[in-house]
Amino acid sequence: MDMQQAEQLYRLMFTNMREALAILRLDVRNPDAPPQVIEMNPAAVKLCRCKSFNLQDCLVTDCFPGWFDPDRFKDHCHRLAAFGGSLELGEVCRDELFYRIRIFALTDNHIGMVISDCTRYREEEAEIADLSAKLEKEAATTDRRVAERTAQLEEINEELDSFAFSVSHDLRAPIRAMQTFAEILLDDEMQTAAERNAYLVRIKTAAQGMDRLIQDLLAYSRVSRQEITLEPVRLDQVVRDAAQQLELTAGGKAYRLEIASDLPTVIGHPTVLVQVVLNLMTNGIKFVPKGVVPLLRIWTDEKQEYCRLYVEDNGIGIAPQYQERIFKIFERLHSMDSYPGTGVGLAIVRKAVHRLGGRIGLESKEGEGSRFWIELRRAE
Ligand code: ADP
Question: Domain 138-222 falls in which CATH fold?
Fold first, then answer.
């Protein structure tokens, strides 16, 4: 390619490029002399303020007024002319479009200036920033969910550990009893019929005890696993149903029941809630001193969006140090002779209340009765 052809091609490129290009001249002997435009391509002319200018004495700052600080621009140009290199001058906004300006040394007294429209680039950058902010937010949500799930799994694991320990321990007790009595029956041939009968009765009692335990464990497992769809439930109806069932299971035992009127509607599950209230009521009439007629009082207390249902008894009460323990599976504070049971009831109650998104607690003093409460979200 000869010089003329090369010159022609460069001129074509200069004329047709989308970027604005200008060539500036500097009087390098005078550091205060501002750069002058000596050439501009059509794209630069389009951006330039003075459309009909005399290139001989047109200052850059006149062509592009307000695009850059005149003094700093002049200093930058002198420095580039002296030391070479290029410089990005930052972004300028004109008529809602954004431009990036770059100046670079051409010769020791000429500076090139390129102005490129970066509006689309900026929009894309904003979109990318928006997307990465969304991604970060999602990542944070995922992290939080993973942490929550891990904590839940850890809790379930711990629960499972103590559950397996308690189950094996408590289920083995009746099995050991059955084994022992069966061995006595087999080994000792000198027993009377009455003695043999007594051992057989003990074996039967142990088997019945084991059956009760298994039934309660199944109930616990059911409440832990069953699908629970939360819905508005009228506590009036729940307490009425539980009271009816209590009458059937009390087996003629005398007790008094005081139920407040107009109990509110809460968010829960009807059958699960009846099971919870029936369990608390059953305990309330069971754990009373001999000779005392049980008195159960039931009422609610509403606080903002929550409602507390109280089940209060006039029973033997529970010392503070046991008030957390009794909600664990198989935890019992009394012998089977004084108060029979499996120690699963309150574990079921607590699990059920948690599954309904609620809380459970109690207020009690030894010898002064107990007041159990469950707290649930009120229905609107
Ligand atoms: P269970 O009734 O089969 O013994 P629970 O899980 O229902 O098992 O109760 C655990 C223990 O908590 C009971 O054995 C008893 O010692 C104590 N308890 C529960 N409810 C009451 C109550 N209303 N008054 C006094 N003690 C109670």
Answer: Helix Hairpins (1.10.287)
